[in-house]
Design goal:
This protein is of the alpha+beta class. The chain contains two helices and ten strands, in the order H-H-E-E-E-E-E-E-E-E-E-E. The protein is globular.
Length: about 210
């Protein structure tokens, strides 16, 4: 027979866990800087917001190892909040390719990288990373301001005047802060970069203190 669960004992252990975590955070001076709905950094970061608290020092090899990439990524081998200060902020871009097949790459193209198309020499500046299951993402540190952008899908043998499944496909972002006329009869996304009142900290982690 299984031992009955002692809910009081369980709560006590959980409270002790959070107490110890709080002491650890205070001892090392670690504060998280999460992106709230108002684009501010409030100095707190919950599991639901950011996957793993900054104080956990979770080791990583790529950004994809760090949970919700809207809030944090892999920096210096550990999952930490994206950089954010009064002048700039790292923004997360994501696109789901859905049913599309046969493309050679997915890109984010906009004011911040001079709108490369599939034939541009600087196309790779906007390349998005395959996260798996049809999801592509990019992280870009941008100065405070507003930027127009679209997602771009390139297919083999693209033509400058050709859009569609065998050439160049421009897509209006659904994750944009707002949209605006693109000047060609369509819509472009607008990303609004607002700085933080306090800079994102960088945790002093060592491999021996990392926690998976």
């Amino acid at each position: 027979m299984h031992k009955p669960i002692n809910t009081t004992e369980g709560k006590a252990k959980m409270n002790n866990f959070w107490l110890c975590l709080g002491i650890l955070v205070a001892a090392f001076g670690v504060t998280a800087c999460c992106d709230d709905d108002d684009n501010s950094c409030d100095g707190s970061c919950s599991d639901a917001e950011a996957g793993v608290p900054d104080s956990g020092c979770k080791s990583c090899q790529t950004h994809a190892d760090c949970g919700d990439l809207k809030f944090k990524g892999c920096y210096g081998g550990f999952c930490q909040s994206h950089e954010c200060d009064a002048q700039s902020k790292t923004r997360y871009f994501e696109y789901y390719v859905d049913w599309r097949q046969g493309f050679t790459g997915v890109y984010v193209s906009g004011d911040f990288n001079n709108w490369p198309n599939c034939l541009s020499p600087n196309l790779d500046e906007g390349r998005m990373i395959d996260k798996g299951n049809g999801v592509y993402y990019a992280l870009r540190k941008l100065p405070v301001g507003e930027y127009g952008y679209k997602y771009l899908i390139c297919y083999p043998d693209p033509k400058p005047d050709q859009e569609g499944m065998n050439g160049i496909e421009w897509i209006t972002p659904t994750d944009a802060d707002s949209t605006a006329d693109d000047g060609y009869g369509g819509q472009k996304g607008i990303v609004k970069v607002v700085g933080c009142s306090q800079s994102s900290p960088r945790v002093s982690c060592t491999q021996s203190s990392s926690a998976e």
